[in-house]
Amino acid sequence: MRIIVDGMGGDNAPAEIVKGCVEASKEISDEIWIVGREEEILKELKKYKFDQSQFKIINAEEVIDNCDAPVKAVRTKKNSSMVVGLNLLKSGSGDLFISGGNTGALMAGGLFILGRIPGIDRPAITSPYPIMGKGMSLLVDAGANAECKPNNLLEFGIMGSIYMEKVFGVERPAVGLVNIGAEESKGTTVIKAAHQMMKKSSLNFVGNVEAREVPYGVCDVIVCDGFVGNTILKLTEGFALNMFQFVKKKFTEGLKSKVGAMLLLDKIKALKDEFDYSSYGGAPILGVKGAVIKIHGSSNATAVKNGILRAIPYASGHVVQIIEDAVLALEEVERGE
Amino acid sequence: MRIIVDGMGGDNAPAEIVKGCVEASKEISDEIWIVGREEEILKELKKYKFDQSQFKIINAEEVIDNCDAPVKAVRTKKNSSMVVGLNLLKSGSGDLFISGGNTGALMAGGLFILGRIPGIDRPAITSPYPIMGKGMSLLVDAGANAECKPNNLLEFGIMGSIYMEKVFGVERPAVGLVNIGAEESKGTTVIKAAHQMMKKSSLNFVGNVEAREVPYGVCDVIVCDGFVGNTILKLTEGFALNMFQFVKKKFTEGLKSKVGAMLLLDKIKALKDEFDYSSYGGAPILGVKGAVIKIHGSSNATAVKNGILRAIPYASGHVVQIIEDAVLALEEVERGE
Fold first, then answer.
1. What CATH number labels B122-282?
2. Is the pLDDT of residue B156 over 60?
3. Which of A211, A242, A251 comes nearest B216 by C-beta?
4. Which residues of B touch A261 (CB under 8 A)?
5. B247 touches chain A (CB under 8 A)
6. How much is the pLDDT for A279?
7. Phi then psi dihedrals of residue B176, to 5 deg
8. Tally of CB atoms within 10 A around A256
9. Interface of B with A in 316-335 (CB under 8 A)
């Protein structure tokens, strides 16, 4: 297998990206092609020892950054690491593409360069949602589609379910639909229609899931539109961060508290680790015709390494093809074939 | 002033409701009328000492519970404590109505019995959103209107702003619109249109607020549709509860941790208290023609007392009338008068 990595994507590129690639290479025999400014990447690579035959640098002088307007950036920065990387994936020169760059541009690039999986109306950005003590659930959509139709939500469920099964080995993943009540009659017109479609599908649909239950990991795949998904992700992030800051302040007020906090240091650290998204690897952009993985923009080398290692079963398991077949089968059922 | 209290609403009714009323009565000179099953309420009242001239029991034999379908319950249970209480408010026999009963029924009852404030298209359920170390923000809508039009969101902002000013004494409350990005161009069609309306209004509109910022208390009034509002509230509730359970488990593993936790006990308790919604009183149902306050179904006597005390400025400050005038003025501006 050949893994293509965006060497210039993210806040710590290319240093941490290159370091992460080197670390990952020691655990796999696959090839890693790093796309980006050759000179900069080479300078980083020289810091490490590794099997040279596993690596190749593909020069790309331009960089799409987070300030770039996604669609425009993809259309004009033809020689950016992201566009060059996606084209390598498209041409079959590589099996998967990993980037920590501008999420919107990666989505737009995926759509323009790779195209959609036939039958998928709207690709989705996903995100692992950490569940304390229990791993993660997959949130689909995490923000690409602020407005959705019922079939979009059904497709998010199908794609997420296949991903969790093939990449995380979850058997018959439980798929839940975020709603403001457990009853079928609850929610918006779109949600109600999506509920009926999901209920009739072959998914292991567990029904409506209230946001209250999401942190408990009641389902493996959390389906919602991008507005709600983005709200869930960002609220969790903001709430946890704010709470940690508050706890830190409170737990260091006075000697008694400081001693107490010292005795609990390992537990507090363990608690913080529960929110470390990076151990679950990156997040696939589901619905584009190719294995595209987004890693967090702030990824360090370990996150890059995890992103690469977790991405391998996504490509080797032919998840994109399986999604295409599943959607095709779905359409056949709908047409009564 | 005369305060009408639903004696039968909530999980701990009538015992905690009556106790809360008695506790509140010691801090105010206003009359409290408790509506519900006279015998049961009298039995509870007899447990306490209080100024008899402040109290009156209005008998109502029926009870609307949480399993009742809201609209049907309001239409058929004419002699329920909720319907009788709302009718007393409507007739002018009382100045405000407080209930810990079925939220949907209270909303439906408010609409059918009191009607909407002229110019308000859709009344909203509100909720205090606790901000660690900083009090609370008011969330509008907390779940009554899953689907909204732009003008609904504008009206939520106006009503919330007036409430925070008159009841909590916040000068020029900062009003934020929940969105998936800070830029004006972000979000759904409805959100984009609402943004423009709010920007042009006389509100102290701080623009889009990402869910990440909500727990930091970046605005006094958090405006969103009921689907998003309900998601924010329930996710916060579920996340905090799950985290406390996890922390409790972790902090009691092993002797060292137990000692540490003991030393931090007061800080942990203080942290939990930050999430005690009840100290902020109840939540007004904004947009109905009368001062209706919902208190949490699980309210204990203290929460009932706080609900009553906080509700007084809502009625005495003529907030409902001020909202009516503000909406009227808004319409005049729109008509160019």
1. 3.40.718.10
2. yes
3. A242
4. 260, 264
5. yes
6. 75
7. -115, 150
8. 14
9. none
Q: Does A244 touch chain B (CB under 8 A)?
A: no
Q: Is A34 on the interface with B (CB under 8 A)?
A: no
**Which tokens is A208 given?**
């409506």
Task: Name the stretches of chain A with pLDDT < 70.
Answer: 333-337
Cis peptide before A141 (omega within 30 of 0): yes
Mean pLDDT, residues B130-140: 91
Secondary structure of chain B in the HEC alphabet?
Answer: CEEEEECCCCCCCCHHHHHHHHHHHCCCCCEEEEEECHHHHHHHHCCCCCCHHHEEEEECCECCCCCCCHHHHHHHCCCEHHHHHHHHHHCCCCCEEEECCCHHHHHHHHHHHHCECCCCCCCEEEEEEEECCCEEEEEECCCCCCCCCHHHHHHHHHHHHHHHHHHHCCCCCEEEEECCCCCCCCCCHHHHHHHHHHHHCCCEEEEEECHHHHHHCCCCEEECCHHHHHHHHHHHHHHHHHHHHHHHHHHCCCHHHHHHHHHCHHHHHHHHHCCCHHHHCCEEEECECCEEEECCCCCCHHHHHHHHHHHHHHHHCCHHHHHHHHHHHHHHHHHCC
Q: Which ipTM score applies to this complex? A: 0.90
pLDDT reported for residue B335: 61
Residue partners of B127: CB distance under 8 A and separation at least 6: B138, B139, B142, B229, B233, B277, B283
pTM of the prediction?
A: 0.91
Q: Tokens 């993943």 appear where?
A: A173
- Residue A239: list chain B partners with CB under 8 A: 215, 236, 239-240
pLDDT surpassing 90 at residue B99: yes
B248 touches chain A (CB under 8 A): no
Cβ distance A215 to B236 less than 8 Å, yes or no, reads: no
The predicted pLDDT at position B259 comes to 87
Q: Is the pLDDT of residue B200 over 90?
A: yes
> Looking at domain B1-120+287-317, what is its CATH homologous superfamily?
Isopropylmalate Dehydrogenase (3.40.718.10)
Q: How close B239 gets to chain A, by Cα (Å)?
A: 5
What percent of chain B shows pLDDT beyond 90? 77
Q: What region, left, alpha or beta, does residue B170 occupy, with left being phi > 0 and alpha being psi -120 to 50 degrees?
A: beta
Question: Which residues in chain A are closer than 8 Å to B232, comparing Cβ atoms?
Answer: 211, 231, 235
Domain ranges across chain A: 1-120+287-318, 124-281
Q: Which residue has the tokens 């005795």?
A: A263
The dihedral built from the CA positions of residue B225, A221, B182 and B172, taken in this order, carries a sign that is positive
* CATH homologous superfamily of A1-120+287-318: Isopropylmalate Dehydrogenase (3.40.718.10)
Predicted confidence band of residue B279 (pLDDT cuts 50, 70, 90): confident
Inter-axis angle of helices B150-168 and B319-335, to 10 degrees?
Answer: 140
Q: Which pLDDT score is estimated for A335?
A: 61
Tens of pLDDT along A94-120? 999 999 999 999 999 999 999 999 999
Tokens at A77, concatenated:
């920065």
Q: How far is B242 from chain A (nearest CA, A)?
A: 7
Nearest beta carbon to residue B243 from set A132, A246, A256: A132
Question: Are the C-beta atoms of A20 and A303 separated by less than 8 Å?
Answer: yes
Determine, for residues A264 and B262 on separate chains, whether the beta-carbon distance falls below 8 Å.
no
Interface test with B, best of A186, A192, A252, A264 (most B CBs within 10 A): A264
- φ, ψ (nearest 5 deg) of residue B214: -55, -45
Q: Yes or no: is domain A124-281 CATH 3.40.718.10?
A: yes
With CA atoms as reference, report the closest residue to B8 among B81, B110, B71, B72.
Answer: B81
Residues 258-287 of A with CB under 8 A from B: 259-264, 267, 270-271, 274
